[in-house]
Design a protein that fits this description.
2 strands; two-stranded antiparallel ribbon; mainly alpha; 4 helices
Length: about 90
């Protein structure tokens, strides 16, 4: 951290990564009680409903969002705003 701001680095794929745990997302993730696989499935399901059937979020990507501070690209942020713990119930 420099001057109170996180330094973002660019990975080869062009992703913004802080290299630090995203504690806010980790806390919300824990409160929801989801597994990484559940969150990935919810994001993919919501993305498809929003017209993005090509999105293929997996558990590795969720882990990088939480553990490495990777910033998800559109349309993911818009998708997870519509996910709720009740969505993970299997019907």
């Amino acid at each position: 951290m420099t001057g109170g701001y996180c330094q973002l680095s660019r990975e080869p794929g062009g992703l913004d990564v802080t290299g630090e745990t995203n504690t806010r997302l980790a806390d919300l993730f824990g409160l929801a009680g989801w597994s990484k696989g559940e969150l990935a499935r919810l994001v993919n399901r919501q993305a498809a409903a929003m017209g993005h059937p090509q999105l293929a979020t997996d558990t590795s990507r969720v882990r990088r969002w939480i553990d490495r501070g990777e910033t998800p690209r559109d349309p993911v942020p818009g998708c997870w705003q519509h996910c709720s713990p009740s969505d993970s119930a299997v019907s």
